[in-house]
Amino acid sequence: MTSPVLGKDLLGLEELSAEQITLILDTAEPLKEISERTIKKVPALRGMTIVNLFFEPSTRTRISFEFAEKRLSADTVNVAASGSSVSKGETLVDTARNLEAMRIDMVVIRHGASGAARFLADRIKSNVINAGDGTHEHPTQGLLDLLTLRDRLGDLRGRRVCLCGDVLHSRVARSNLWGLKKLGAEVAVCGPRSLLPNAIDQMGVQVFDRIEAAIEWAEALNILRLQLERMQGGYIPSLREYNRVFGVTRERLDRAPRDILIMHPGPMNRGVEIDSDVADGPHSVILDQVTNGVAIRMAVLYLLAGGRPELAEAAKG
Amino acid sequence: MSGKPTVVLDARSMARTLRRMADEVVELFSGTDDLILVGIQRRGVQLADRIANFIDEREGVRVARGALDITLYRDDLQTIGPRPVVGKTSLPLSLDNRKVVIVDDVLYTGRTVRAAMDELADFGRPSRIALAVLVDRGGRELPIHADIVGKTVQAASHLRVDVQISDIDGEEGVIIVPREAEGEG
């Protein structure tokens, strides 16, 4: 099934127009209410089969997708790389083709290789949703961050958002960058130069070498997770050193000229990139991001499930 | 084809009709106890509000109002594709033992009303659900019947019945136009 508005797949925000992004956010808005009901379920995707294919460990994203799928009444199957034929050496395409032979409608994929979602999307008929591929993109995280910002700041044109920390390894940062730029926000990054992409200056973003300067400038900080499992490469001297120079702390925020929204895609390293009293503080919208994630994923699933527009007229009434 | 729209109700006759429908709601339930008027997005919501205002005026009460978007309950996602934007649903958390009046602008195939009843069932078990529509245009595809009807018209399938509400459309009234001009389902 190909959506008349989004196409077959959701692979990244780089490919989407501002109108398409706004449509997803506008669709997510009323879907929030479903999760507040006693019976948290609507029949929109009844009879559709969705496979969550996770080649990398994930808790939040996988559960969020699963809730979104179930609240739209889709049937879901979870496949994790360990304990499946993947661990026996089956290729990605073979795994997906076997699933497709069992007549599925959509695949949600998380994979460690950048471009894995696109690779799969080009080879199977089912809709493919990228749930994070390597250091490339994590579009639904980008969208839920945009929704959370829009809830608090309204129109994002001209609003100032700073992505802090490990931008180099972060697919969340990349999706945020594309999404924020398309919606007209001003974007900055802040982190040690070793954790910023080389050509970052050419991306039309401001670069802050000091977190104090970022705090003085920004209306919202999206604090990226310092990816401890990728730290063997010697990008930073030590975690304590990182916290001392780049950690977002209450003392630093107290000196800000305005209230700053605090975001974090999780899982947090408390005491490294973010201090506990900031994460749990009055300006933190970290749990709103999680709540919005379910609505955003429902919106994406619903829009991608769309049918053939040429029949729309016949079905009116 | 460019036929001139046929006016079914003008603004003044529409107001009269809604006032009469308000009286019929109160009569149907012998009062306003446990009553809630639930409009179907989009124009049903405005109409439910108008009718409720008339009831408030007459009876000196404040009748409960709700809004329902049935987009996610439709049985034709595969053929129409998703509506670009889903409207807001706002209902009390429980409709147990309430008397619910579904309010919509035009009753046609009955599929919208079926979807609305499915959705209401997810909010509890009302003691009674009634249906009030401003226009019944015939053409039912399901065994569904309105309890309160503002105006009955016979409109062939190539025609569209449009209810216009000043808050949304700038004008007020009911018109019949050829279907080629795009509009709501």
Would you spell out the secondary-structure blueprint of this structure?
The complex is a heterodimer of chains A (317) and B (185).
Chain A: H1 18-31, E1 49-54, H2 60-71, E2 75-80, H3 92-101, E3 106-111, H4 116-121, E4 127-133, H5 139-153, E5 160-164, H6 171-182, E6 186-190, E7 206-208, H7 211-217, E8 220-223, H8 239-246, H9 250-254, E9 261-263, H10 276-279, H11 286-304
Parallel strand pairs in A: 1-2, 1-3, 3-4, 5-6, 5-8, 6-7, 8-9
Chain B: E1 6-9, H1 11-28, E2 35-40, H2 43-59, E3 64-68, H3 77-80, E4 99-107, H4 111-121, E5 128-136, E6 148-152, E7 159-164, H5 166-169, E8 173-178
Parallel strand pairs in B: 2-3, 2-4, 4-5, 5-6
Antiparallel strand pairs in B: 1-8, 7-8
Q: How much is the radius of gyration of chain A in Å?
A: 20 Å
Sheet with the most strands, sense and barrel status of chain B: 5 strands, parallel
Beta fraction of chain A: 5-15%
Query: Helix segment count of chain A?
Result: 11
Protein structure class of chain B? alpha/beta
Helix and strand element order of chain A: HEHEHEHEHEHEEHEHHEHH
Going by CATH, the architecture of the largest domain in chain A would be 3-Layer(aba) Sandwich
CATH topology of the largest domain in chain A: Rossmann fold
What is the overall shape of chain A?
A: globular
Largest sheet: spatial strand order of chain A:
7-6-5-8-9
Which fold name corresponds to the CATH topology of chain B?
Rossmann fold
Please mark out the parts of chain A with pLDDT under 50 across 5 or more consecutive residues, or reply none: 307-317
The largest β sheet of chain A comes out as:
5 strands, parallel
Element-level helix/strand string of chain B = EHEHEHEHEEEHE
CATH superfamily of the largest domain in chain A: Aspartate/ornithine carbamoyltransferase
State the distance separating the first and last CA atoms of chain A: 23 Å
Mean pLDDT of chain B: 91
List keywords for this structure.
heterodimer, A: alpha/beta, Rossmann fold, four-stranded parallel beta sheet, 35% helix, B: 185 residues, globular
